[in-house]
UniProtKB/TrEMBL annotation:
<feature type="domain" description="Phosphoadenosine phosphosulphate reductase">
    <location>
        <begin position="198"/>
        <end position="269"/>
    </location>
</feature>
<dbReference type="GO" id="GO:0003824">
    <property type="term" value="F:catalytic activity"/>
</dbReference>
<dbReference type="InterPro" id="IPR014729">
    <property type="entry name" value="Rossmann-like_a/b/a_fold"/>
</dbReference>
<feature type="domain" description="Phosphoadenosine phosphosulphate reductase">
    <location>
        <begin position="5"/>
        <end position="68"/>
    </location>
</feature>
<dbReference type="InterPro" id="IPR050128">
    <property type="entry name" value="Sulfate_adenylyltrnsfr_sub2"/>
</dbReference>
<dbReference type="Pfam" id="PF01507">
    <property type="entry name" value="PAPS_reduct"/>
</dbReference>
<protein>
    <submittedName>
        <fullName>Phosphoadenosine phosphosulfate reductase family protein</fullName>
    </submittedName>
</protein>
<dbReference type="InterPro" id="IPR002500">
    <property type="entry name" value="PAPS_reduct_dom"/>
</dbReference>
Length: 360
């Protein structure tokens, strides 16, 4: 069976090096390059992809998720919503001595859930609970319906449409953006190739020294029927990657020269404090875009509000529940957000400031 090699290109250094490696080892007719466009990318990423296509003489297929159907279904759901159920807060029940009362099943056995801590599974007993308060209506109010239906139309931007459909932004715990905008698109592309009779090898630019989660990633593995993953860079360092590209006369994405330590969504929902400050100084238009998205997604949500960083109620940081402008303010502070950092605004936003020391 003929093999088809698929390289996912993101515009970052690792995927660029992976593409270069694949081009050196694989014949062109058995190689495909894809880019999953989230719609939350900096313009420089699109320009860099065009540069790569020209410099390497290869076509990079752009994949873009479309949520028109989901949005149409949600409109219908909201318009017809007439649920009468209420949603209650609950508290755990304790006995007279203050010990938790455990929930039991129909046979009188204590109920438990299997959870995981530090990679090790354990049984967590389930406490019996009781409803408190009068509860909240599950149904969309007429006011919320009118507000959401006025804005809930596909915009053609995958990231924004996804968030309007979900009524919220992704978060660290609910990182549905990666799955919906990247993973599903790449997998669908590869399944089409499998259906066309190919054995698919998915080249992934992943390094073990990137993070603890990736420290044990395997160089190659089977990921499905007639589908394998191949990760040629697992033992490389970031410097190896830059050197490899430089030896082949391929420029790094200019975003690396402007303070970005990673290339991808701008901003990513996992953006660090320093990165957020850099983005707000160098590309304030991206912050303005996110602010307009916060308004739109908020209008499309039942609560009437949505924040990009972080998703409401999922963290307990000093800037909990702040909108993007509040987060930008916080990014200019020191000591956990309690003191304004006068030096933060003095850093020259037009100077080269590569996090990898690419510019001397
Ligand atoms: S995790 Fe970050 S980079 Fe990945 S899709 Fe979500 S916002 Fe984009």
């Amino acid at each position: 069976m003929e093999a088809m090699h698929v390289v996912s290109v993101s515009g970052g250094k690792d995927s660029t090096a992976t593409l270069l490696l694949a081009m050196e080892r694989i014949s062109r007719e058995n190689l495909r390059a894809i880019f999953c466009d989230t719609g939350n990318e900096h313009q420089a990423v699109y320009e860099y992809l065009s540069y790569l296509e020209q410099a390497l003489d290869i076509q990079i297929d752009r994949l873009k998720a479309d949520f028109s159907e989901q949005i149409a279904d949600k409109r219908t759901f909201i318009a017809r919503d007439d649920r009468t159920r209420r949603q209650y807060d609950t508290v755990g029940i304790e006995d007279a001595a203050g010990n938790p009362v455990w929930a039991r099943d129909g046979f009188g056995k204590i109920r438990f859930k299997i959870k995981e801590k530090n990679g090790a599974p354990f049984c967590a007993l389930i406490q019996k609970t009781v409803k408190v308060g009068g509860g909240r209506r599950v149904r969309w109010t007429n006011k919320a319906k009118r507000r959401a239906l006025a804005v809930l139309h596909p915009t053609g931007n995958p990231f924004l449409d996804l968030c309007m459909w979900k009524g919220r932004f992704p978060s660290r715990k609910g990182q549905f953006c990666t799955e919906e905008l990247k993973r599903n698109m790449a997998v669908a592309y590869q399944i089409d190739l499998v259906d066309a009779g190919y054995r698919v090898i998915s080249w992934q630019g992943v390094r073990r020294d990137e993070s603890a989660r990736r420290s044990n990633v395997r160089k190659s593995e089977r990921i499905g029927p007639r589908m394998h993953a191949f990760r040629p860079l697992v033992e490389w360092t970031a410097l190896d990657v830059f050197n490899y590209c430089a030896q082949r006369s391929i420029q790094p994405n200019p975003l690396y020269l402007q303070g970005c330590s990673r290339v991808g969504c701008m901003p990513c929902i996992n953006v660090s404090k320093d990165e957020l400050r850099t983005i707000s100084q160098r590309w304030p238009e991206e912050i303005e875009r996110v602010a307009s998205w916060e308004w739109l997604v908020g209008q499309a949500s039942k609560r009437g509000a949505a924040t990009f960083l972080p998703a409401p109620g999922e963290t307990r940081t000093a800037v909990d529940r702040g909108n993007i402008w509040q987060r930008v303010e916080w990014s200019r502070t020191t000591r956990g957000g309690s003191q304004y950092d006068p030096l933060a605004d003095l850093s020259e936003p037009t100077a080269c400031s590569s996090a990898y020391g690419l510019c001397n």
